[in-house]
Amino acid sequence: MLEELLAARLDRGAPETLAHQLYGAIRAGILDASLRPGQRLPSSRQLALEVGLGRNTVIEAYARLTDEGYLVSRVGAGSFVAATLPEQLLQAAPAPRARRRSASPGLSRRAQAILDEVAIEEGGAFAPCVPDVTAFPFALWQRLIARAWRQLRAGDLRYAGPGGLPKLRAAIAAHVQLARQVRCTPEQVVIVNGAQHGLDLCARLLADGGERVWMEDPGYPGVRRVFYASELQVQPIRLDSEGMAPRAADWETPPRLIYITPSHQFPTGVVMSLRRRRALLEAAARHDCWIIEDDYDGEFRFSGRPLASLQGIDAGQRVIYVGTFSKSLFPGLRLAYLVLPEPVAERFARAAAQLGFEGRQVTQHALADFISEGHFAAHIRRMRLVYQQRRDLLQQVWEKELGTLAPLSGGDTGMHLIAALPAGLDEQVAVRARAAGLVAQPLASLYLGRARQGGIVLGYGAVHENDIARHARALARIVKAVLKSG
Amino acid sequence: MLEELLAARLDRGAPETLAHQLYGAIRAGILDASLRPGQRLPSSRQLALEVGLGRNTVIEAYARLTDEGYLVSRVGAGSFVAATLPEQLLQAAPAPRARRRSASPGLSRRAQAILDEVAIEEGGAFAPCVPDVTAFPFALWQRLIARAWRQLRAGDLRYAGPGGLPKLRAAIAAHVQLARQVRCTPEQVVIVNGAQHGLDLCARLLADGGERVWMEDPGYPGVRRVFYASELQVQPIRLDSEGMAPRAADWETPPRLIYITPSHQFPTGVVMSLRRRRALLEAAARHDCWIIEDDYDGEFRFSGRPLASLQGIDAGQRVIYVGTFSKSLFPGLRLAYLVLPEPVAERFARAAAQLGFEGRQVTQHALADFISEGHFAAHIRRMRLVYQQRRDLLQQVWEKELGTLAPLSGGDTGMHLIAALPAGLDEQVAVRARAAGLVAQPLASLYLGRARQGGIVLGYGAVHENDIARHARALARIVKAVLKSG
């Protein structure tokens, strides 16, 4: 097999980079015809997993081979050994910096890494990360927007000051203190255009290219994309039942950033234990790392012991708390926030404003009113009951159909849970589910390192009460059939 | 002088990086006491200019010296030689990778470069880049927003598809074809959150860290910030009366991206000649570069021969056209657009959506209606007359007061022009203007390389007709006084 051939030719002790070695190994395979013209190569993601290399390493090797004419890349289809190799390639080593010959230049390597990252599936019942937007009180919202326009001052049409509208920063500070025990002043709150934008700012304003960021594995592909765009080195860190579990060896090369979802790990649903939180804060202080706490659905907690935010127990001023209105109100709003440690908040907000300019003050006025007049808390309370009812229905039907065959976990919070499956079967379930118009995101697809745990992610947020039993039964039957045939 | 001392110690032929050499030179100066404890160092910007180094080089050297305790940095005040140097620093070379000791980790080097970049002045008459938002028909706009909310479909609350709302992409494609002779289909239009966001996407999806980007010099500091954030190497290219004028030697190390403002160069107002446009397109094709055409105020052309967009005469599919509604409608709207070459448009739009997620579809509906119902064209026509009247008034008063002492140029388009001054005097004018509540952005502040041309930028967009003569007279008198004393 190709993977074995390549693995045999890589030497981690050699002075050449692994990307260069991989490039050489594939090139040698093409020149000695063990790789045939037209042959399809594995995706960079797949090869990285198989050979145990970083994704960027494979992308770099593929890009160079493509630049030099050994590979051709077809959009949506992958990379292939070139059908006809230019004569001179077979006679001599190619010029080291051969330029691309295409009609227009290509996208960057980081763009390619963004496009290659796995997609969260959508367009069917149980798609993950989809809140129910039909329940949003949009008539009320529209009245608040109209009122903000009526009360308009000319300054509202200009760029916003650093950090966003003071009134909204204050409303958010009050909310997160009460709801999530985040300790902050309004000056520590920075309004952003969605959580991805906030993470993007963290990646660039807190880290430089080539620096290391740790992520729980499995994790959210969208966040990995943000880190690729900033050329950070994404290092997957294993999870256990208490949350992210770095080994002593991991700390020998400490990261600049640690990205975690402690309230409801995405996708496993693990809640980080208090002991682990304390240990992580202590180690981060010792190694001088920033911790990014993404609390993407922490507002929807149904059961289990509630834990305060990690930010709330940090004495070292190194936690950045990320909250969003995408799940609690609606995704298209594009408003989220960061809570920065006091010593850097002002400079961070200023750099963010200078990098991207801010505005949308009318919408920010409306949101501030929505929060401070109590509508936000009321909507959260209402939706918490809706989601809890959907989760309970899904659990009842699932357990009735499958007993203990594909046990559920991770449902104390949020709008998804996990059904465990033997490793290797989750992809089969996903394929059959898709054919039935359902979504069963395989857990294996969300790992960056080698997948350890089999299962599927069941997003129930946007599946109506009247439909959930029917869809759950259909998916449970698919699971049963795959388990039987596997 | 420090600058001379340092320049003498730098050797561009040496194998060490210039940042490392600069670090060594400053460190040696501290250790041999030619730099005294507590002494303030020049800003990274100033030192880079004086010694002829890239800004990032100086930032890197300062950051390392600060990390290692030789310098201390005070927010807003700059960098100083540490008052007391730790004993061991005087005895031995510091450990090569000493960690920072601060209570929380610092911002990244790129954040520091963003913060160190010059600010465009604001808060007074003649501040550049400020459109008049008081003339915006916001009652009409509010009706369109309210209508979009009434016609809401649930999908409008979710993330938008790649590229933005199809209806808005189509309206923009029709507009730019007519108004700017941009050739495109709606599928080539990508909606972004302001021009800075669009440029940010270009920097990351079209180039990788360390690649070179050319910019006209002088140029817009906000764009430089975007490129620093993506760790591109910003290379200033000289301007002449026909626009960006790269030398043959510049083409020996061709860039990945070329950023230009051909319709109305910022800040000089030079319009790129057709001959220069053709030459640049031809050279870019030969060297396989992307060209980013920023048409930030091209809609407001009053006089001179109108030229089509560069995109419209590009046969090589390598121009990305950037348009914005910040100047033509209002900055706080945060909507702008890119027009991508057809071969990469789909993948670019997909990568952009995956990186940042998009939404705000209700606002996009309203803007599409505003354009397609003719309100946009009407507003442009109205504002063109307003701005032209303000420009004419400013010119009349200025020439009456100053004759040919500080000649105006660059006013055929847009909402600012340039008053030429002898080099070195523009900073003095700026200081006195500020004391009088006026803004006179010095041209020297906008150069990245060594400044060549003295002058001040006069933004007249937001200065009302009734005030312009009074403010222009006040500023002209300051100029006269400085010219007399200089």
How many distinct domains of chain A?
3
The share of residues in extended strands of chain A comes to 5-15%
Biggest interchain interface, per-side counts = A-B, 81 and 81 residues
CATH topology term of the largest domain in chain A = Aspartate Aminotransferase, domain 2
Spans of chain A of at least 5 consecutive residues whose pLDDT stays below 50 are 86-102
Distance between the termini of chain A: 24 Å
Described by its quaternary structure, the protein is: homodimer
Describe the main β-sheet of chain A briefly: 8 strands, mixed
Helix count, DSSP H or I runs of 4 or more residues of chain A: 17
Q: Give the beta-strand count of chain A.
A: 14
Proper CATH architecture of the largest domain in chain A: 3-Layer(aba) Sandwich
Question: Care to describe what's here?
Answer:
- The structure is a homodimer of 486-residue chains.
- With 486 residues, chain A is an alpha/beta fold.
- Chain A has 3 domains: 87 residues, Winged helix-like DNA-binding domain superfamily/Winged helix DNA-binding domain (Arc Repressor Mutant, subunit A, Orthogonal Bundle); 240 residues, Type I PLP-dependent aspartate aminotransferase-like (Major domain) (Aspartate Aminotransferase, domain 2, 3-Layer(aba) Sandwich), CATH 3.40.640.10; 108 residues, Aspartate Aminotransferase, domain 1.
- In chain A, 43% of the residues lie in helices and 13% in strands.
- Chain A has 17 helices and 14 strands.
- Chain A has an 8-stranded mixed β-sheet with strand order 3-10-9-8-7-4-5-6, with helices on both faces. A 4-stranded antiparallel β-sheet of chain A has the order 11-12-14-13, with helices on one face. Chain A has a two-stranded antiparallel sheet with strand order 1-2.
- In chain A, helix 8 runs parallel beside helix 14 and helix 9 packs parallel to helix 10.
- The longest helix of chain A has 28 residues.
- Chain A starts with a helix and ends with a helix.
